C-alpha cells in the first residue's frame, strides 16, 4: 500500500464525522447557510447521544476498502480509470441505495433500518446513525458490487474512495434540519437531484422519497411525495418552516 492510498483511507474513515461536526457548528453558530430551517422543532439531547453512539461503526467502509486493496482489487491507476470508476460507483450507488432502502421498508426487513428512522427530525449525525446490520449490508453491497464489476473492466481505488468522500460530505448536510440551496436550485438541478428538504420528508413521514442523490427512481417507481417541491419553495422562498412532522402541503398531485 502506498502512502497516498493510506492517506485516502484515513480520509474516508473520518470525513463523515468531520463534516457532521462542521454542519452542526453551522447551525449552532447560526451561520448564514443554516438560515432556511425545514422544521421549526428542536432536536433533543437523547437523539444526539444515540446518533453519536451509532456513528462509531460508520468507518467500516474504510476497513472494507482496505481489504479490497490488500486483495489486489481496484488496481487501475490512470486518471481516466479514476474518472469512470467514480461515475460507475455513483450510478451503482443510486441503484443499490434505492433497492436496499425500499427493501428495508418491507415489514419483515424493517428491523435493519429502524434505528436510522428513530430520528424523525434528522440532523447531520443522523447521516452516520445506522444499525450495524444496515451499515454492513450497504457497504458490502457498494464495495462488493463494484468488485464484481471489476471482473469485467479495470477499476480504480481512488475513484471508489472519491465517491465515498463526496457521499459522506453531501449526506451530512443532506440530513440537516435546514436547506442550504437557493431558490434557483429547484428551477433546474432540483428537478433531477434530491435536496435536504427532499430527504427530510422521508424521515418525518417515514416512507417515500427513497432516492439517494437523484429523484429519478422515485419518479419512475412512483415513490416521490407530490409536495416535495412545494415544501422546498415554502422553506427556501417563503422562509416558513414546517411546524409539525405530519404537516403536508396540498398540491394537485397530493393523495
Distance between the termini: 54 Å
List low-pLDDT spans.
Answer: none
> How many β-strands, per DSSP?
2
Mean pLDDT over the full residue set:
94
Give the helix tally: 10
Largest sheet: 2 strands, antiparallel
State the order of secondary-structure elements, H for helix, E for strand: HEHHHHHHEHHH
Question: For the CA atoms, what is the radius of gyration?
Answer: 18 Å
Kindly report the spatial arrangement of strands forming the biggest sheet: 1-2
What would your notes on this structure say?
The protein is an all-alpha fold and 255 residues long. It has one domain. Helix content is 54%, strand content 2%. Strands 1-2 form a two-stranded antiparallel ribbon. Helix 1 (3-28) packs parallel to helix 7 and helix 3 (60-70) packs parallel to helix 6. The termini are far apart. The model has no long low-confidence stretch (mean pLDDT 94).
Task: Summarize, please.
With 255 residues, this protein is mostly helical. The chain has helices spanning 3-28, 45-54, 60-70, 79-104, 110-113, 132-149, 157-174, 196-205, 216-221, 228-236, and strands at 36-37, 178-179. It has a two-stranded antiparallel sheet with strand order 1-2.
Blueprint of the fold:
Elements: H1 3-28, E1 36-37, H2 45-54, H3 60-70, H4 79-104, H5 110-113, H6 132-149, H7 157-174, E2 178-179, H8 196-205, H9 216-221, H10 228-236
Antiparallel strand pairs: 1-2
